[in-house]
Design a protein that fits this description.
Hypothetical protein af1432, 206 residues, mainly alpha, binds fe (ii) ion
Length: 206
């Protein structure tokens, strides 16, 4: 299926122009970020387009459709079924559109709740979903600029922005989010404490 044909199919599947406009913006930004960071832009674009296929399902349908497919449901997901739209979305991408590339499906699965061990493509789609131009929060433009320079730093920024939002709304924090936060905080801290000689070594052949 061509990308244009897939876009038409996704539009028909979502049946809501606002959500379709969002996934197109995520696909465009993920494409540009992938190209900038040497990742597969086509995979990033496809993942962006299909990431929210189950986003408009009500909680009862999310749980029922996951159970029907034996998709495991964690305790925090039972309490917050909206989180299931990411993993169910990957199932729908495979079933409805024949997308079976593990890298694309992984990026769809991790677009909502970050976790340790994400691939670069996972990070790109997660970041693109969090900071696409339709999002309105003060740090958005700065995070977009940062994402083109440094994916680790952008992941940390996006996770912190998510936590601030969850705190403000009184919502629960998914345990994998805190584990991912620790990963990116550790990376940021280790970069700050590297001795200058090590930091310079990639550019110095001796
Ligand atoms: Fe989503
Ligand atoms: Fe989204």
């Amino acid at each position: 299926m061509t990308f244009v044909a897939l876009a038409h199919a996704v539009r028909a599947e979502l049946r809501q122009e606002q959500r379709y406009a969002h996934v197109v913006r995520v696909a465009r930004l993920a494409d540009r970020l992938a190209a900038r960071h040497g990742e597969d832009a086509r995979k990033a674009r496809v993942a962006g387009l299909v990431h929210d296929l189950a986003r408009l399902y009500p909680a009862s349908r999310l749980i029922a459709e996951c159970e029907r497919r034996d998709v495991p449901i964690a305790d925090f997901e039972r309490l917050n079924p909206i989180l299931l739209h990411a993993r169910l979305g990957a199932e729908l991408a495979r079933e409805r559109f024949g997308i079976d590339d593990p890298a694309i499906l992984s990026a769809v699965r991790t677009h909502t709740v970050p976790e340790p061990g994400m691939s670069r493509l996972d990070e790109i789609v997660h970041i693109a979903d969090g900071i696409e131009p339709g999002r309105k929060f003060p740090e958005r433009a700065g995070l977009e600029e940062l994402a083109f320079r440094d994916l680790d730093a952008a992941m940390l920024g996006v996770i912190e922005a998510t936590l601030a939002y969850l705190r403000a709304t009184g919502a629960d924090v998914a345990p994998p989010t805190l584990a991912a936060l620790a990963v990116y905080q550790t990376r940021a801290a280790s970069r700050l404490t590297l001795p200058p000689a090590i930091e310079r070594s990639p550019a110095c052949p001796t």
